[in-house]
Write a structure and sequence with these properties.
Layout (H helix, E strand, L loop, with lengths): L4 E5 L4 H7 L1 H10 L4 E3 L7 H14 L2 E8 L10 E2 H15 L3 E4 L10 H19 L4 E5 L7 E2 L2 E2 H8 L4 E5 H6 L4 H7 L4 E6 L1 E4 L4 H8 L3 H8 L3 E4 L8 H10 L4 E4 L9 H14 L7
Parallel strand pairs: 1-2, 1-13, 2-3, 3-4, 3-5, 5-6, 6-9, 9-10, 10-13
Antiparallel strand pairs: 7-8, 11-12
GO molecular function, one term: isomerase activity
Pfam family, one: AP_endonuc_2
Keywords: Isomerase
Length: about 290
């Protein structure tokens, strides 16, 4: 079994990629102690692909996975689409030595109802089959919407049934946010999960404006603020008990555990990554960096 490696999800570094370029951004990631990166929402121009390739070679850096969307519907976050760029995506994977490709989310239009979800699963399963012919496995990254139930089944489980060729990238924060148990989800999809996202789940402060609204007897405005104070957090800065979750992920054979933080609340992403690194080391996972 391949030993798992802790890495970084590049989405949180989009501005750094634009400011410093891929090579220098990846150099900084390695200097922080990470030696794997998942590329997402970074334009895969020929120039960027070559810089990523050079960084991979110069810094002994794993490119854990690349990102894509199924169709060109304008909601892909800048990722290439399988519908019109299949050959390019395969070529980029080959150039960077990548055999894991991931779909970052269920497309917004497909969230409408179960039938629109099933439209997506048919497309995704077809492309997963096509990619396997090139030695590339396709994975699906969840958010919280996959824990809506249809006839007593989580949407994630329906996707699993309808897409037998598809693997999973389990985002543990979004599992928790969807009200499910991360350990149970990892256990249920053991053998199909090669990647996980590590980020914490924090309850933030009720803003002062909400209390001002309350004083003006605007209870609904206060209540909306009260029910929307969930924040993304650096590992160790929230409420998730990551030691048993990571142990379960390792037991199920995941290849990469990728640190991610969707919103940084004004902090520098490198500082956030340093804090998360320190927490993982404190938990005893220094050997996975």
């Amino acid at each position: 079994m391949v030993e798992a490696k802790i890495g970084v999800q590049a989405m949180m570094l989009k501005e750094k990629f634009e400011e410093l370029g891929p090579y220098q951004t990846l150099k900084k990631i390695v200097e922080l102690g990470y030696h794997a990166v998942e590329i997402s929402q970074i334009p895969m121009t020929p120039e960027n692909v070559q810089e990523i390739k050079q960084a991979k070679e110069d810094f002994d850096l794993d490119i854990a996975s690349l990102s894509c969307v199924v169709s060109n519907d304008g909601a892909g976050g800048g990722n290439d689409d399988l519908e019109t760029q299949f050959d390019k995506i395969v070529a980029d994977c080959k150039t960077l030595g990548v055999d894991l490709l991931r779909i970052g989310m269920l497309p917004f239009p497909n969230m409408r109802n179960l039938e629109t979800v099933l439209d997506f699963t048919r497309q995704a399963n077809k492309y997963a089959k096509d990619l396997k012919e090139h030695g590339i496995d396709l994975y699906y990254h969840n958010h919280h919407v996959e824990f809506r139930k249809y006839d007593g089944k989580f949407l994630l489980d329906i996707i699993a049934e309808e897409c037998p060729e598809l693997g999973f990238e389990v985002d543990l924060h979004w599992v928790q946010r969807g009200g499910a148990n991360p350990i149970d989800v990892l256990d249920k999809h053991a053998g199909r999960t090669a990647l996980v996202h590590l980020k914490d789940y924090r309850i933030g402060e009720i803003p002062e404006e909400a209390f001002q609204a309350l004083e003006e007897e605007d209870v609904m405005t206060f209540y909306q603020a009260f029910t929307n104070i969930i924040e993304f957090a650096e590992l160790g800065q929230g409420s998730m008990d990551y030691k048993p979750i990571i142990e379960k992920a390792l037991d199920t054979g995941v290849r990469y555990l990728l640190v991610e933080q969707d919103m940084l609340y004004g902090r520098d992403p490198f500082d956030c990554l340093a804090d998360s690194r320190d927490h993982l080391i404190a938990l005893g996972y220094e050997d996975l960096f």
